[in-house]
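request received
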Amino acid sequence: MGRTIGKRLLQLIPVLLGLTLLVYALMDLAPGDPAAKRLQAQGVAVSEETLDAAREEMGLNRPFLVRYGDWLLGVLHGDLGTSYRDGLPVAAKLWKGLKNTLVLTLASLALSVAVSVPLGVYTAVRQNRAGDYVIRFLSFVGASMPNFLISVLLMYFFCIRVKIFPVIAKSSVQGLFLPALALAVPLMSRFVRQIRAEVLEELSKPYVAGARARGVKERYVLYKNVLHNTLSAVITIVGLSVGGLLGGSVVVETIFSWRGIGKLAMDSITARDYPVIQGFVLWMAVIFVAINLATDLAYRALDPRVDGLEGGR
Amino acid sequence: MMKGRPAARAAVKRRVWVFLILAILLVALAVAAPALAPNDPNRTNSDFMKIAPCAQFPLGTDKLGRCVLSRVLMGARTSIFSSLCVVAASFAFGTVLGVLCGWYGGALDELVMRAVDILLAFPQMVLAIAVAGVLGGSLLNAMIAMGITGWTLYARLARSAVLTLKNEPFIAAEKLSGCGTPRLLCRHVLPNIFGPLLVNAATQIGTMMIGIAGLSFLGIGVTPPQAEWGSMINEARAYIQLAPWTVLAPGGAMLITVMIFNYLGDSVRDLMDVSGQSHE
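response:
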């Protein structure tokens, strides 16, 4: 296990290097002169003189790779530059939003798992009965709905029609529910289908038939064996969904005015505040990579066969 | 589960046909949109603002007095064609690159696969939002933003399929009988790896549609006044309590379209499964 972790971390180095290069290149991708954009974002008149000074200050006269190296060195020290808009350090701004985003995404993940595991098991046990069909159809509808549509509809019904929730989410439990639900609907829809397939596969295995033949109670088989064995699959399913969750949080946070990192990113895109956008993409990618690694390792820890296979090769 | 059972196969085949026909109907509807639209989709009219559905405006009008039905129809064109274009381009680019990597290996393979690793290290929508946001709002930029990561799956699938195919005796036989590499790749390799790639493409259409609409919703997709479902929902959500049809019409159209394409993707995958062809 220790060797696997070391190997995985070594493999990550070139990926992280390429990833940072791409993030840094994003700024150069933008049409126009970065110095002029920074001046505009700060509300300074753009003239030949101020431009030259800004270029000098931002080090834009140096070659791309040198600037990238400098930036990367800063990133490794936790320095992501300063925002064009208010001159505050980007890292501090991101930290503030990250906490709210984590609360939102974890809440929606918890909600998704809490709803989809029982439903997934239920639909598998009642395969091809009415309940199975209804839940499967609903989960198909949910999986085909974009986050923004769910958010707008939830807002319409719960905030305007039935005034249960405030229109603008506050960082309270009440304000958290709707955005978390909006984020969770496509997620739990996908989970239900995947968990159903996993449980069905597990139920068709010989040991289940064996246990049933020996007269072990159906309930015991289901809860003690089947559920336990599908746990590693659930962890993989949850891990794989994190990418979509991070993307979806941008949309949901923007709609519900949830003061997370996604809303900060959208505000920065509108204001053309490139350092903040860069920092946002970098953090999201690093979180994504870390969670993928953790999912993989957890899967190996729960299912030692995977490790054995690798060793045998 | 029911591998190869003829009855199951026939049922899956029928399902593929049903959803293929529905999808083709949607595309036809999008093609015919300008002829079908009852009113000019971009014409504003201050006398008919936020009118409920009636004979002249079957799905009502929006804040600027534009006909919602006409805009939904024209929006179908934007949404369906842009996602089909991105999927087709990703499919072609990724497949060609993957086949070349698998066939020739070496430095090209190494380079492309590392690039794929790097691109897959980003959550797709996060990268798309950043790229579209930085490039500036336009439909083409949104399509580029979605396509940047879209091709990677095809490249991986095609590459691994070619790697296993390379050692098949019939490929060696074709080589010995003097078949040139381009002909070998086009006539013998491509048709044999097509199945899993097609499944991937079919399931990707719905995701692309949601992605592009999402970018437009955020204001970094189509430029107004072009009709597009995502941007229509964004414009209308501010006055949803006064004119709910302005959100429900494009939202319903979007949901039905994505569902049809998702069902199509699922049934194509099931067809490959019951046909005994493996996919990753």
